[in-house]
Amino acid sequence: MPSFNPAMQKATLAELPDDPHGLISKRTAELDGVAVTQVTFHRGARWSNCTFVEFSRGNDYYA
């Protein structure tokens, strides 16, 4: 299992650039040992007006 930083880590997802995929956009913050991804479904996309945040560490995903 990869190591991770047990201390508090911070990232502001709103300050990260969008990674657009049609009507869905993603923003990912890479922290020590964990990636945090915000997924936004824009108007017209399936599940529009929803935002999900996902945490992943290696092959483990937490939503």
Provide an overview of this structure.
- With 63 residues, this protein is mostly beta strands.
- Helix content is 0%, strand content 48%.
- It has a five-stranded antiparallel β-sheet with strand order 1-2-3-4-5, with no helix packed on it.
- Strand 2 (24-31) and strand 3 form a beta hairpin.
- It is elongated, with a radius of gyration of 13 Å.
Short description:
The chain has 63 residues and is an all-beta fold. It is 0% helix and 48% strand.
- String of helices and strands: EEEEE
Give the strand order, joined by hyphens, for the main sheet: 1-2-3-4-5
The radius of gyration computed from the alpha-carbon positions, rounded to a whole number of angstroms, is 13 Å
Oligomer: single chain
Biggest sheet details: 5 strands, antiparallel
Low-pLDDT sequence parts: none
According to DSSP, the number of beta strands is: 5
Average the pLDDT over all residues and give the rounded result: 80
**Gross geometry:** elongated
Structural class: mainly beta
Separate helix tally: 0
The proportion of residues forming helix, as a percent range, comes to under 10%
Strand percentage, roughly? over 45%
Q: What is the first-to-last residue Cα distance?
A: 20 Å
Write the layout of secondary structure elements.
Blueprint: E1 19-21, E2 24-31, E3 34-41, E4 50-57, E5 60-62
Antiparallel strand pairs: 1-2, 2-3, 3-4, 4-5
